[in-house]
Specification:
Blueprint: H1 3-16, E1 22-24, H2 30-39, E2 44-45, H3 48-54, H4 64-77, E3 82-85, H5 94-105, E4 111-115, H6 130-147, E5 152-156, H7 167-180, E6 185-187, H8 194-204, E7 209-212, H9 221-226, E8 231-233, H10 237-254, H11 267-279
Parallel strand pairs: 1-8, 2-3, 3-4, 4-5, 5-6, 6-7, 7-8
Helix pairs in contact: 2-11, 3-10, 5-6, 7-8
Length: 280
């Protein structure tokens, strides 16, 4: 895409957040991004775990430069807006977070998520202190604004994921602070109870709330829309589904059986999808 196309893509992405509820699936490579475009999704988001697994690494083990290259690939793969899962900004200090966000914007992304996890859940400090987390979020906002690009900033509170003793109220406290620091959309991965979701939606309103659905759910997009959720991402769930199917088939092969291929859709269908995409 050229600069004008980037601008149009970013404007489309921001408009999606104005009303309703949309699905924001997470591809983990070029092929999955192209396939999701084929299905008609309106925007995509990267996944830190899915990308790491595709490189044979555990989550949080990829480097900033690896992620930047991956984001460039995803952006180039389709004409859809891409939201970057940028973990904790690949730095501790606000200045370094700002510089890394500037580099992310250069890849052509339409949104970037910054979380308040230190990525060290084994330590006594799995989350940055609120003052520090706000400074990091504000630095990300300043960096985006300095580029002159209309890239959305998503503020993530990781309280549920790290097992905070008062995850709901601490998430509210943090998300409201991130909104004041310039986050355009708020996100508390790990929240599952309906009443907690509704509470978070109200707490950050009028700004949009992103909900993570990483496990099978009896509820639908319409159900979550009725709660006020604006967008739904699935994190590494699609990667997990693909790896799980691969693992099941591979284990059958190890036992000398081929039943793991029973639900394969066939190469011809995928070949046509990718051939058609390559023409556009």
């Amino acid at each position: 895409m050229n600069p004008q196309q980037y601008s149009e893509c970013r404007a489309q992405f921001r408009k999606l957040h104005e009303s309703g509820c949309f699905m924001l699936p997470n591809p983990y490579d070029v092929g999955t991004a192209v396939y999701l475009k084929h299905l008609g999704f309106k925007a995509l988001a990267s996944t830190s775990s899915g990308f790491a697994f595709s490189r044979g690494l555990p989550d949080h083990a990829v480097t900033r430069d690896m992620v930047l290259a991956h984001l460039r690939e995803l952006v180039a793969a389709t004409d859809l807006p891409v939201n970057a899962d940028y973990e904790h900004g690949y730095a501790d200090s606000p200045d370094e977070v700002g510089e890394n966000v500037r580099l992310a914007v250069q890849t052509g992304i339409a949104g970037v998520s910054i979380e308040d996890s230190t990525n060290d859940k084994a330590s006594s400090k799995p989350l940055y202190e609120l003052t520090e987390a706000v400074e990091r979020m504000r630095a990300a906002r300043v960096a985006i604004d300095a580029t002159g690009e209309d890239v959305m900033l998503i503020g993530r509170a990781e309280c549920f994921l790290v097992g905070h003793e008062d995850a709901l109220n601490e998430s509210i406290r943090r998300l409201q602070a991130y909104a004041k620091a310039g986050a355009d959309c708020l996100y508390a991965p790990g929240v599952r109870k309906r009443e907690d979701i509704e509470t978070l939606v109200k707490a950050v309103a009028p700004k949009p709330f992103n909900l993570l659905i990483g496990l099978a759910s009896p509820l639908t997009l319409d159900d979550y829309a009725a709660m006020g959720v604006r967008r739904i991402s699935v994190g590494g769930a699609l990667s997990g589904a693909a790896l799980s199917a691969f693992a099941r088939a591979a284990r059958e092969l190890k036992d000398g059986r081929f039943g793991g291929f029973a639900q394969n859709e066939g190469n011809a269908a995928f070949n046509k999808i990718f051939a058609d995409a390559a023409k556009t």
